[in-house]
């Protein structure tokens, strides 16, 4: 009599998506399964139930599964998971198989897994310093870029995001084609960090085959240093990520490929393809965050930074003595520390980098005042005009006078701008009064527009400092 092989499978679960189980039998509509019970989510693994604290019998409807078949686990005869660095090789390729493979590697300190040419990164939320050392960086560059090996050199290496950077540099330097790297994932997945790791590595690839120096090229340094600026103005604390990018970006790294006429081009002896500059396109800034955010979240970092700045009254003397709560758009926050640094220290760093890219003196003053104007606009309130409910008048007179003084605009003109809308037809221009709700809406739109434009202006300044001239 032949012994029946244990059928290690997965079943759907509303809490954990997929659970490992053992299939005991089935009829036309249902499968009978034994489900190992683990201590907690972390300890749920594919191990044939060896570390489970008990078992439960269950019956699952086959109609919940693709073609009525329960997906099988990628395990050996004793039920232990067989982990694959490249998921193209998974014997059973399905969602549950992918998730448990990634979970196993993640648990073993391996945040990267390959699927063909794609690298999947599972955010470890702790720095595994040993996988980002200079030695590791140059090994990936040497083997993937500079050594002309037969076959796929990746087969001898652990999957790593350095593989993506090295292969794109190689494609650019030796095949001559432009390269694109797409980094995608949900909020907090680690996209921004991955881009930094990738850019740093591209910089070490261009140091050439024999480089062992950790010295960064000035271009890359400038590109990476501009990051805190984009983060100050474009990032905010959300419930998922304390430093969440609230805009999309397309970073173009510009390489000088040398003179193609010279034999040196495509030489494997020397790097002739060198980083000359970078350009960033920013889009879809979450402008709405300027005027409102969830209680557990924050608006853009720069607002807290400026309120916390030691020298804030330099930008507007009325900032002296103010707190986050002094401004409706900013409001109470449960933290004054982002990525281990206080808002006040971040501000000093923001100003230092701004000055480095040429935003200093009057330009710096204007930028900061634009930010303060946005905050002050949030403090303007409206009430119905006693003579006509459809008209509104400004209720917060002192805040309004401060705003006008800050903007250097006469109060009468500003009041008209905030409480009336100008309509234009083909033959005439006329004013429509705004009720308090509409006036508030218009004021908020004005604040969002100023912030959005200041952000794009800043991106242009960064590009002026980092883009290659030709
Ligand atoms: N490779 C990594 N090693 C260690 N920690 C990491 C790594 N990648 C990301 N993290 C951690 O995860 C946090 C969130 O990462 P990151 O800001 O890159 O996410 P994101 O995908 O860009 O999020 P968002 O879309 O919200 O901007 C980082 O602040 C860092 O603490």
UniProtKB/TrEMBL annotation:
InterPro entries: Myosin_head_motor_dom-like. GO terms for biological process: actin filament organization. Keywords: Actin-binding, ATP-binding, Motor protein, Myosin, Nucleotide-binding. ATP binds at residues 185-192. CDD domains: MYSc. GO terms for molecular function: actin filament binding; ATP binding; microfilament motor activity. It holds the Pfam family Myosin_head. One of its GO terms (cellular component) is cytoplasm. It comes from the Eukaryota. Belongs to the TRAFAC class myosin-kinesin ATPase superfamily. Myosin family. This is Myosin head motor domain containing protein. The lineage of its organism: Eukaryota, Sar, Stramenopiles, Ochrophyta, Bacillariophyta.
């Amino acid at each position: 009599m032949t012994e029946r092989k244990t059928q290690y499978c997965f079943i759907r679960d509303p809490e954990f998506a997929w659970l490992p189980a053992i299939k005991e039998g089935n009829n036309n509509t249902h499968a009978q399964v034994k489900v190992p019970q683990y201590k907690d989510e972390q300890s749920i693994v594919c191990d044939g139930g060896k570390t489970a604290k008990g078992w439960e019998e269950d019956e699952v409807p086959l109609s919940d599964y693709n073609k009525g078949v329960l997906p099988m686990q990628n395990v050996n005869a004793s039920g232990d998971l067989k982990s694959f660095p490249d998921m193209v090789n998974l014997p059973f390729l399905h969602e549950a198989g992918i998730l448990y493979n990634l979970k196993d590697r993640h648990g073993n300190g391996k945040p990267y897994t390959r699927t063909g040419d794609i690298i999947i990164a599972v955010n470890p939320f702790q720095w595994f310093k040993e996988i980002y050392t200079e030695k590791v960086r140059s090994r990936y560059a040497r083997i993937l870029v500079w050594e002309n090996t037969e076959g796929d050199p990746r087969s001898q290496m652990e999957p790593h995001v350095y593989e993506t950077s090295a292969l794109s540099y190689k494609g650019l330097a030796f095949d001559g084609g432009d390269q694109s790297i797409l980094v995608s994932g949900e909020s907090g997945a680690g996209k921004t960090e991955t881009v930094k790791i990738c850019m740093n590595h591209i910089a070490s690839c261009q140091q050439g085959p024999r480089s062992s120096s950790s010295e960064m090229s000035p271009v890359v340094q400038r590109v990476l240093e501009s990051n805190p600026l984009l983060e100050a103005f474009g990032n905010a604390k959300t419930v998922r990520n304390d430093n969440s990018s609230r805009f999309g970006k397309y970073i173009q790294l510009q390489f000088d490929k040398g003179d193609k006429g010279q034999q040196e081009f495509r030489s494997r002896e020397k790097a002739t393809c060198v980083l000359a500059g970078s350009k960033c396109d920013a889009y879809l800034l979450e402008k709405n965050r300027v005027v409102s955010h969830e209680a557990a979240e924050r608006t853009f970092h720069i607002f807290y930074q400026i309120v916390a700045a030691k020298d804030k009254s330099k930008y507007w003397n009325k900032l002296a003595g103010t707190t986050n709560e002094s401004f409706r758009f900013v409001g109470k926050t449960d933290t004054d520390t982002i990525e281990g640094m206080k808002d006040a220290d971040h501000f000093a760093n923001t100003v230092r980098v701004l000055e480095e890219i040429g935003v200093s003196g009057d330009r710096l003053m204007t930028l900061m005042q634009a930010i303060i104007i946005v905050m002050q606009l949030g403090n303007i309130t409206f009430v119905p005009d006693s003579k006509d409910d459809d008209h509104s008048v400004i209720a917060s007179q002192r805040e309004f006078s401060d705003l006008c003084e800050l903007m250097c605009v006469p109060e009468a003109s500003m009041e008209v701008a905030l409480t009336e809308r100008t309509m234009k037809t083909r033959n005439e221009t006329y004013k429509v009064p705004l009720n308090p709700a509409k006036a508030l809406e218009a004021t908020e739109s004005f604040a969002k527009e100023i912030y959005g434009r200041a952000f794009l202006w800043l991106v242009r300044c960064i590009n002026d400092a980092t883009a290659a001239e030709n």
